[in-house]
Specification:
mainly alpha, about 70% helix
Length: about 130
């Protein structure tokens, strides 16, 4: 736990670099909320093939908040994918189960964080309010 806390703190310090702490933390909190909203919308939509769109959209919206939002989006995306790798390992062993999907999710995450249009991943027929 101490190692995890230390890594988060160091990551925060490196992420803040030249801007004020309050601004960075506010952007990070808003970015985390954007990620949560995209996740909630994905669960609500329950639309086959829309996973990558919601990954890209959450990261895109978070990144629009500024450096704090980019930081939050990256950390949350990595946490989600890494935790799935661990649970897949315990469920399926060292079979590589889910590796391709995880790599595709990370591609969509990076796409959104880079400011590119998340609609690139939007599946046909997904309701417009998403």
């Amino acid at each position: 736990m101490k190692l995890f806390t230390g890594l988060v703190f160091c990551s925060l310090v490196l992420g803040v670099s030249s801007q004020s702490w309050f601004s960075f933390i506010g952007e990070a909190a808003q970015g985390a909320w954007d990620m949560w909203r995209a996740y909630s919308d994905m669960k609500e939509a329950n639309y086959i093939g829309a996973d990558k769109y919601f990954h890209a959209r959450g990261n895109y919206e978070a990144a629009q908040r500024g450096p704090g939002g980019v930081w939050a989006a990256e950390k949350l995306s990595n946490l989600k994918e890494d935790s799935e790798r661990v649970t897949d390992f315990f469920k399926y062993g060292d079979s590589g189960h889910g590796v391709e999907d995880s790599m595709a999710d990370q591609f969509a995450n990076k796409w959104g964080r880079s400011g590119r249009d998340p609609n690139f991943f939007r599946p046909p027929g997904l309701p417009d309010h998403y």
